[in-house]
Each structure stands twice: as structure tokens, then as C-alpha cells.
Amino acid sequence: MPTGIFYAQGVKANVIFFDNKPASKTPWTREVWIYDFRTNIHFTLKTQQMKYDDLKDFVECYNPHKRFKRKETERFKKFSYDEIISRDKTNLDIFWLKDESLGDMDNLPEPDILAQEIIDNIEAGLSSFKEIVDSLNGRDK
After folding, report:
1. What 3-state DSSP class applies to 1?
2. What is the DSSP letter of 127?
3. 31-80: per-residue pLDDT in tens?
4. Any idea what the Cα angle at residue 13 is, between residues 9 and 18, rounded to 5°?
């Protein structure tokens, strides 16, 4: 999920859907479908809010009623269990789309969006650090 859609500053999130299955010695998972809804997508809480229409493509791709007929798209890709388990630390932070803002200086987001993203990230880091300090000092919330 892109930054700018939650009220807490700088929050980044992955949304994962699982089927509830009984425990097994062998993994139930054979493949994982991933929809990249963060690369080259920007939202803000005030000027460019995320709307339901922004999720239409995801809903169409994910469609649980037709999950065995899913097709890959530019943003929706399938990864096998073996591909995922072979990743360093079995990391699920998988991306494949090129971030246009990193390679094309002419297509950077507007300065106010970049500045707000920087502020959000700094505030999120500061908040996390304060929570760590509070925890170390025995002031858990």
C-alpha cells in the first residue's frame, strides 16, 4: 500500500489474505499472488485522497470467486512457494515495477508531495524511536 492513506504519519503496509487451513507438515501454499499498489502511486490525506475507484483494478484482479482463473497483469504477479522461500530471510517485500521517480527526474512528484513524504517518514521514525525509549524506561502504553 502506498504511504499517505493512513492517519499515522509515514505508515507503510502490506495487506495479506490467507485461507484458514489446518496445520500441516508440508506447506499448503503453492503460490502467492502479489498486487503492487505502491510503486508510482501517491496519495495524501488532504489533497489526493485514495478513493474506491483507485482499488477497482485490484478488486478485479483479486476476485476470490475466480482465483483459479487469475491472470498476471503489470501490477498483479504470481510467485511460487519456492521463489519466495529462496529469498533472503523469506522476505515478502517483493516488487518488480520500476519506480519512475528514481530514474526519471522529469517525472518526480510535486515538491510539496515529496516534502510531505519526507516529513511523514521522519515523524514515523521519531514516533517509533519514542516508543522504543518508552519501552526501555518501562512506560509501555
Report:
1. coil
2. H
3. 999 998 888 887 777 777 888 999 999 999 998 888 889 999 999 999 99
4. 155
Q: Tell me the whole-structure pTM to 2 decimals.
A: 0.61
Q: Say if 16 falls within a structural domain.
A: no
**For the chain, how many structural domains are there in total?**
1
Decide: residue 35, CB within 10 A, 0-12 exposed, 13-18 middle, 19+ buried: middle
- Rounded to 5 degrees, φ, ψ at 117 are -65, -40
- Per the domain annotation, does 23 fall within a domain? no
8 Å CB contact between 116 and 9: no
Domain that holds residue 51: 31-136
**91 within domain boundaries:** yes
Q: What is the pLDDT of residue 22?
A: 94
What are the backbone angles phi and psi of residue 78, rounded to the nearest 5°?
A: -110, 135
Provide the pLDDT for residue 56. 94
In a domain, 85, yes or no: yes
Residue 10 burial by Cβ neighbours in a 10 Å radius (0-12, 13-18, 19+): buried
Q: Answer for the pair 32, 78: CB distance below 8 angstroms, yes or no.
A: yes
